[in-house]
């Protein structure tokens, strides 16, 4: 697999990003040995691109299958394959990814004519910001794990310190790489870049799979916390299962520091799985953009900007939902940190959702109906980022929908007449409908072509004229008054369809933000109320929650980006 450089005039110079070099005059066409007899250079390039994607995909598939086999063997036969063996394999993959990322940063991206185009749709600021946020939380998680293992070094393997240390280096390097190069459409070393990206995607998927299935440290922490509570209560140790007897032999010498590491580890654990999922989505877009040449039709002449105009009721209702949700969240966190969370706090938590979810569902349904009534044309241009957005919205919604169905089965099979169980059942059913209706609304809105309104053009011209001159304090007051009158004028002159779409989109944005904050920062009643856990068993429900919860958090975060896009294009 190799690449061929052909000197040709660049017919797409007008479509290059501002960051691209202005003297570019060469395009690197791909070449693959299976298609060396193709007469057309363009046809050979297309076939070579498909072959490169196929072989890099096969590489990722084999790596994922190998890692999955290791992880499955650890779960079902932990004597032959231990957790340390899985960590060693993942450490090797991380080191290989580190070498490739460093080579890309220092070698590939700095070659002449390497990045002729940059995908304006890829690497939105909110998703790159989430990479940094979740990356920092994952680094803290690894720091807590290192501190916990260092205190217990007398009974812990050194691999438990080396693995998170390599993880910190991997997270920092990958976050820097994605922040600066997520928009690249690389035009050199196509196949090597594809293989490197796919290897990194496979490594992140395996890290996510291990985080979802491995409850070893959680069980150990819960066992130690119970032992500490028993010692403080002056009770004799009770008979534990074999895994508890093993963990009691490895007791922290300083219980205060250990509790800090343990609580921090449990609190930050979901962020690590979230980080892996976000990185996979960004890396996949980069993989699709390898060798991509963007024509001028794909480059927007005017980039849509977010402006808080034409909305009144959406921000008011959404702000009320955020404030009430924050109060419920703080009340829940205060109560849930106690040894026995009160039943009342679970009732308040589920009641809040039961009120909010139908409002979101009705809003999404109304927005979908308005989309159907509109005569706006569909945007049929090829857009890998939008295609991935649709796949991610559909795929991430499966996490919450799957957890909801598991809860429904457990609730119906036990005692659905109980008040708390009835609320949980209503919550699960409503969550399914809300996810489906919101997906339909967002996906339909993402495929609508934006129409630049006349008031938008005038406002842009006024802003440019205003920026070219300085104003005094008196003039500033007059400008503020003009801006207020302009806001009222804009709101009154918007068509009712566009106004309703903006109101609904902004309301759903704020609702999804609070529904993202609540589970992200520690409120997990699906695991803490104990009903589903007692029905399915600890290990089974642990896997279900750690599979569905990060996907649910990712879904809310991704929905915010999609809804903002719908708001801007409305």
From TrEMBL:
Transmembrane segments: 54-80, 86-106, 126-149, 161-179, 191-211, 266-287, 308-334, 346-370, 390-413, 419-442, 504-523, 535-555
A Pfam family that the UniProt record links to this protein: Otopetrin
Protein topology in the membrane: Multi-pass membrane protein
Keyword GTP-binding on entry: no
Main location: membrane
Keywords: Cell membrane, Hydrogen ion transport, Ion channel, Ion transport, Membrane, Transmembrane, Transmembrane helix, Transport
Region annotated Disordered, chain positions: 1-21
Cellular component annotations (GO), alphabetically ordered: plasma membrane
Subcellular location: Cell membrane
GO molecular function term, any single one: proton channel activity
Family: Belongs to the otopetrin family.
Protein name: OTOP3 protein
Organism: Oreocharis arfaki
Record lineage: Eukaryota, Metazoa, Chordata, Craniata, Vertebrata
Gene name for this UniProt entry: Otop3
